[in-house]
Design brief:
Elements lengths: L1 H29 L3 H32 L1
Length: 66
């Protein structure tokens, strides 16, 4: 069950990283993207922790029902 939680975390992190890359490309056109990249990394890390905790909670509930 923890493997599925880890899988959800990795997929979520990858999607956020792709979104951050797109925003970084837009920011590069508009100016200096480093501040956006730094804030984006913080957002990605926080989102990964949230999704992993949520997925682990769902996996734990699934185990308790059996």
């Amino acid at each position: 069950m923890v493997k599925s939680a880890l899988y959800l975390t990795v997929v979520s992190w990858a999607l956020l990283l792709i979104g951050m890359a797109i925003l970084g490309a837009i920011a590069r056109v508009l100016g200096n993207p480093w501040l956006l990249v730094a804030v984006g990394i913080i957002i990605v890390a926080a989102w990964s922790v949230f999704v992993y905790d949520m997925a682990r909670g769902l996996a734990t509930k699934r185990v308790r029902r059996r």
